[in-house]
């Protein structure tokens, strides 16, 4: 039997994904995600754009030093100072890669760079030659390739390979391509790149909802590497969703005839972690990782599933590491039972961490009779969240509400050991709570978005609140969970304010 071609998975959650509005991460958060991406076994982690900020530089440097296994890439514009900063950040990686990007479309050349085609080509070539002296692996991206003049694009690719590029990435930067046409373009580029010892890569955006189909058709037409993000996050409508691409390849080997080294059991955990840390919820009907991806609601479907799962299901939830809404524990379960359940979910913790999780578990189990697997995941996520400098901590909250009275809230918050208390009225108890907290923080925040989700079913379920707030044009996200939705709302708001203050 012929060996199946191995498609390289290039994850750009920490670079393109971090460019999602409001999703900025701190250094520890980027490292936490990078560690999970290593467990997921991606081939390449694009850790950031180090020239963009000192914090991103530090984060990329730390990832390069610590994460051993995948190639660690970073992005740079075709400018020597950018490349120098990038190299400084990634040079300690076991397998570093410099990724240079330069536009090839008229839109980019004329309006962004104000350069002629020839001038831009020279700029790109010089950048590759300069970077090649620092690093043997050079990826070159022809930004906005799908809207570029084809002859010019092919010329740039040939010259880039001659100058030393080892990976040629073809981005559909604005999500303009359609699968059939895109597939043909990739096949033609494959003819140019196949004789040389270089990898052909694609990077597809989702503006018309075609990022995943375009990525798959590129594979069918010879692409060796695909660039994706977890949950498809990224600029505007996002990138190709990693989980959708790799599972499609797994479920249809008959059609694609390729494989990846992805550790499928880590998919759901990675999706949840990225969603939780970045504060970007996953839509319920999202393929593979959405809450309803494996839910069967019509009677006919349920009947079929009960007779044989194959009737209406092509993926086993367990294959992607799904922890079901299965009952696991109660308040009377001991630490040993908790440890066992955590291990079954794939978690391993030190004794001190287990103790903390057990404490939190008891608090929740006190209010909620049955602890389900999904509750445990939520508890673990909260307990292992990166400790930020918590300037404000919720101490006490009391609210009154109803349809015939003015909703009021009294909130007590700890700040460096001191208690601050404020009360306020509002249009509802959440509004009253947020007004009271605004008074405590002595700042005016604009609530851009508020969402409440229950972690599991049942009236006593854990509620998870996500808020997006804005202050002086800076957008931040906060989250909080509790069996009481007002408490969860207050925690989420304080979490967002703490994050806002930490960025200053
Ligand atoms: Zn992109």
Task: Give your account of this protein's structure.
This protein has helices spanning about 25-40, 55-65, 80-90, 105-115, 115-130, 150-165, 180-195, 210-220, 240-250, 255, 265-280, 300-305, 335-345, 350-365, 375-385, 430-440, 485-500; strands at about 5, 10, 45, 70-75, 95-105, 140-145, 165-170, 200-205, 225-230, 260, 325-330, 370, 390-400, 410-415, 420-425, 445-455, 465-470, 475-480. By secondary structure, it is an alpha/beta fold. It has 3 domains: about 5-250, TIM Barrel; about 325-385; about 390-500, Alpha-isopropylmalate synthase LeuA, regulatory domain (Double Stranded RNA Binding Domain), CATH 3.30.160.270. Helix 3 links the parallel strand 4 and strand 5. Helix 8 crosses helix 9 (about 240-250) and helix 16 (about 430-440) runs parallel beside helix 17 (about 485-500). Bound molecules: zinc ion. The site of zinc ion has 6 residues, from loops.
Give a quick summary of the entry:
This protein is an alpha/beta fold and 504 residues long. The protein contains 17 helices and 18 strands.
Distance between the termini: 59 Å
Unreliable spans: none
Number of domains: 3
**Distinct helical segment count:** 17
Biggest sheet character:
8 strands, parallel, barrel
Q: Output the strand order for the largest sheet.
A: 2-3-4-5-6-7-8-9
Radius of gyration: 25 Å
User: Which CATH first-tier class of the largest domain would you pick?
Assistant: Alpha Beta
Give the overall pLDDT as a whole number.
Answer: 91
Can you count the beta strands?
Answer: 18
CATH fold-level topology of the largest domain: TIM Barrel
């Amino acid at each position: 039997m012929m060996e199946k071609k191995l498609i390289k998975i290039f994850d750009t959650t920490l670079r393109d994904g971090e460019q999602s509005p409001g999703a900025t991460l701190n250094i520890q958060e980027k490292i936490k995600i990078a560690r999970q991406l290593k467990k997921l076994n991606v081939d390449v982690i694009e850790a950031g754009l180090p020239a963009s900020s000192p914090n991103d530089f530090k984060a990329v440097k730390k990832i390069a030093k610590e994460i051993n296994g995948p190639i660690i890439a970073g992005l740079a514009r075709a400018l020597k100072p950018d490349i120098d900063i990038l190299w400084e950040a990634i040079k300690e990686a076991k397998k570093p890669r410099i990724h240079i990007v330069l536009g090839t479309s008229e839109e980019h050349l004329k309006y962004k760079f104000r350069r002629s085609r020839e001038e831009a080509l020279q700029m790109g070539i010089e950048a590759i030659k300069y970077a090649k002296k620092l690093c043997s692996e050079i990826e070159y991206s022809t930004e906005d390739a799908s809207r570029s003049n084809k002859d010019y694009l092919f010329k740039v690719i040939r010259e880039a390979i001659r100058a030393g590029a080892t990976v040629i990435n073809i981005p559909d930067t604005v999500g303009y391509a359609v699968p059939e046409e895109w597939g043909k373009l990739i096949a033609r580029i494959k003819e140019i790149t196949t004789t040389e010892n270089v990898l052909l890569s694609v990077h597809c955006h989702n503006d018309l909802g075609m990022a995943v189909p375009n990525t798959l058709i590129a594979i069918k037409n010879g692409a060796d590497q695909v660039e994706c993000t977890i949950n498809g996050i990224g600029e505007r409508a996002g990138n190709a969703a990693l989980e959708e691409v790799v599972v499609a390849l797994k479920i249809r080997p008959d059609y694609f005839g390729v494989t990846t080294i992805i550790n499928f059991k880590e998919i759901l955990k990675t999706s949840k972690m990225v969603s939780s840390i970045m504060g970007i919820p996953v839509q319920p009907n999202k393929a593979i990782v959405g809450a309803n991806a494996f839910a069967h609601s019509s009677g006919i479907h349920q009947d079929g599933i009960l007779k044989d799962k194959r009737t209406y299901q092509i993926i086993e939830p367990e294959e992607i590491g799904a922890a079901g809404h299965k009952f696991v524990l109660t308040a009377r379960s001991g630490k040993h039972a908790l440890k066992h359940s955590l291990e079954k979910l794939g978690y391993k913790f030190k004794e001190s961490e287990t103790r903390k999780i057990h404490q939190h578990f008891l608090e929740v189990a006190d209010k909620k009779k049955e602890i389900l697997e999904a509750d445990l995941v939520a508890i673990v996520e909260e307990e292992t969240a990166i400790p930020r400098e918590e300037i404000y901590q919720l101490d006490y909250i009391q609210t009154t509400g109803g349809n015939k009275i003015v909703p009021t809230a009294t909130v007590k918050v700890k700040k460096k050991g001191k208690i601050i208390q404020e009360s306020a009225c509002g249009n509802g108890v959440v509004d009253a709570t947020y007004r009271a907290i605004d008074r405590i923080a002595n700042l005016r925040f604009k609530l851009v978005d508020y969402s409440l989700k229950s972690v599991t079913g049942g009236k006593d379920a854990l509620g998870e609140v996500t808020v997006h707030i804005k202050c002086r044009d800076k957008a931040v996200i906060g989250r909080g969970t509790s069996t009481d939705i007002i408490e969860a709302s207050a925690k989420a708001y304080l979490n967002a304010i703490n994050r806002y203050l930490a960025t200053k």
